[in-house]
Design a protein that fits this description.
By secondary structure, this protein is an alpha+beta fold. 23% of the residues lie in helices and 32% in strands. The longest helix has 33 residues.
């Protein structure tokens, strides 16, 4: 019975972690470029009471063994890089990636971060930056006096300066892709970092080498499905409750044993 107490406790711990992941998904339901996380579970080791194939007589063997499981654990959280819904903003500096790929930004320590959040802005020096002021990589500067900015599906950035009749190309946006995007490290602020599990970044122009294209004037919204998250939350709550009932049941059985009199 003591074994059952510890086994049920592992189930409660696992479901608590599941609720934590669901809560984070729901809190980011309106975060541009956010990708939902999914939790994975594994069963723990088994205590073997009887080996399968053990001899019962000289000529006979057990067809099956006797093993008792010791519970469950959370093995990983996995980001689901499914395309989110595109929302029109009519701001030409709002960019959405249709397909695979990440925008590259320069972090304060000089390293490169990766994001699906395309809500770019112009800083005081005319540079395209994120909401936190991180420069787009490669850096693109909009000339002073530009009255119109446009971004093509291939990442070409053009600007029409006041007094001119033809727009001039001012930069080229490139995107990065990974063999295993689920292996990227979450840094917060809609930023990912490369990791040994993700593989090295493959950089190219939008629309080339399997990389997606850009849509100007749109933002990719979170891919969190509220209805599915609510269903998963109810399932996790009930699983937590059932595991707690197991603990209550074992406690009752132990109480019966403790009340036995000689």
């Amino acid at each position: 019975m003591i074994r059952a107490l510890h086994t049920a406790a592992t189930g409660m711990d696992a479901q608590q972690m599941s609720i934590d992941i669901i809560a984070n998904n729901l809190s980011n339901v309106n975060t541009p470029g956010y990708k939902k996380a999914r939790i994975n579970f594994q069963d723990l080791i088994y205590q073997t009471m009887t080996m399968a194939g053990a001899s019962t007589t000289q000529n006979n063997q057990n067809p099956t063994g006797l093993q008792v499981g010791l519970g469950t654990k959370t093995s990983a959280t996995e980001k689901m890089f499914v395309q989110g819904v595109l929302q029109q903003t009519e701001n030409p500096l709002n960019l959405a990636i249709e397909g695979e790929g990440f925008f590259q930004v320069t972090l304060p320590d000089g390293t490169i971060g990766y994001t699906r959040d395309g809500s770019f802005k112009i800083d005081a020096e005319g540079n395209m930056v994120t909401s936190d002021g991180y420069l787009l990589e490669p850096n693109i500067t909009i000339p002073q006096g530009a009255v119109q900015v446009s971004v093509g599906g291939d990442g070409t950035v053009s600007a029409l300066v006041g007094g001119e009749t033809e727009p001039q190309q001012v930069g080229q946006i490139t995107l990065a892709s990974f063999a295993n995007p689920a292996g990227l490290t979450n840094m917060g602020k809609n930023i990912f970092r490369e990791s040994p599990a993700s593989g090295s970044a493959v950089v190219g122009s939008p629309g080339e080498e399997g990389i997606g294209t850009l849509a100007s004037g749109f933002l990719e919204m979170s891919n969190v499905d509220v209805v599915k998250e609510m269903v998963e939350m109810i399932s996790a709550q009930r699983a937590y409750q059932i595991n707690s009932k197991v603990i209550q049941g074992v406690d009752t059985m132990l109480g019966v044993v403790a009340d036995i009199k000689r």
